[in-house]
Design a protein that fits this description.
about 300 residues, five-stranded mixed β-sheet, two-stranded antiparallel ribbon
């Protein structure tokens, strides 16, 4: 009998089918492994931000970052966008890298160094090249872009994927943040002082969230905030109106986004970072007077 060389068509099709089946089984596992790796980098970034926050306090007589600052124009009380909009990203930048923080050409505004950008950006997000009006919120898959000094250059603003728990700011009287918060909290709990919502260096505990995956650089959650109907973050044309009680969207929606498989990563005051399911966000003590509650967050 003559020896048969090679495969028959049927045998070849069977082999191809087996290979296709193996690929179909492997791809989800590979995708899951990739997501886990990106989340691990994100956790590392958040730990560095939390450490920078602590180092800032240690280097500034125990103070915490202000909502608006005249840094680096110490002593200048004039209202200037480059000063007022410094924000925590610029204040903490020098604690995130040993690089000299450069100025934007021809300005007195800091430019975001590559090393800082790498820490500020979750690898699960992309950097949008242009956002209308040069700044705007991100989403579960896109980074936000902070404003620049004059709002004219879409490449001038800083980029990030993480937001600060606004209740760990320094709410100094005379600061824009204080009047902004006081006005809204007055209708929420009129008999409760504004200061009682803010953490200080003396009363902050290890379980307080400092930074987390977010669509904007800061937000001020309240325990009454409802679960947002859209977990992509794209429903926000800008940050939500502060403290829309009951019927509104509230400010938890900045953090309650489906970035890491129905969870976000959070950096805590004791220096650790953790993967937190979205429903558990209402269990975290965002404010000193937080009232923990159970919620149900439905997936897409």
């Amino acid at each position: 009998m003559k020896a048969r060389n090679g495969f028959t068509l049927v045998e070849l099709l069977v082999v191809i089918s087996i290979i296709a089946l193996l690929i179909s089984l492997l791809l989800p596992a590979l995708a899951k492994a990739k997501k886990a790796a990106l989340s691990t980098v994100c956790l590392s970034n958040l730990r560095e931000l939390g450490q920078a926050y602590q180092e800032y306090g240690n280097g500034n007589e125990g103070s915490v970052p202000a909502y608006a600052s005249d840094f680096p124009f110490a002593g200048d009380t004039g209202i200037d966008a480059a000063q007022y909009n410094a924000g925590w990203p610029r204040l903490l930048a020098s604690y995130l890298t040993s690089e000299q923080i450069p100025y934007l050409p021809g300005t007195t505004e800091f430019s975001e160094p590559p090393a800082v950008l790498a820490i500020m950006t979750c690898p699960s997000t992309t950097n949008l090249p242009v956002i209308p009006a040069s700044w705007g919120p991100g989403s579960s898959v896109a980074a936000w872009r902070q404003w620049n000094a004059d709002g004219s250059d879409p490449q001038g603003g800083w980029i990030g994927s993480y937001g600060l728990n606004g209740w760990v700011y320094n709410p100094a009287h005379g600061q824009g943040l204080y009047s902004y918060i006081a006005q809204n909290l007055g209708s929420f709990q009129p008999a409760v002082s504004v200061q009682s919502y803010f953490w200080t260096r003396s009363n902050i505990n290890s379980g307080v969230p400092l930074f987390a995956d977010s669509v904007w650089e800061d937000s001020f959650p309240l325990w009454t905030d409802p679960v947002p109907g859209n977990l992509t973050g794209y429903a926000m044309s800008n940050m939500p109106t502060p403290f829309q009680i009951d019927s509104g969207t509230g400010m938890m929606q900045a953090f309650c986004i489906d970035r890491h498989s129905m969870a976000i990563n959070v950096a805590f005051a004791d220096g650790h970072a953790a993967h937190v399911p979205l429903a558990n966000l209402w269990q975290l003590p965002w404010t000193p007077n937080w009232q923990s509650r159970r919620v149900v967050v439905n997936g897409p």
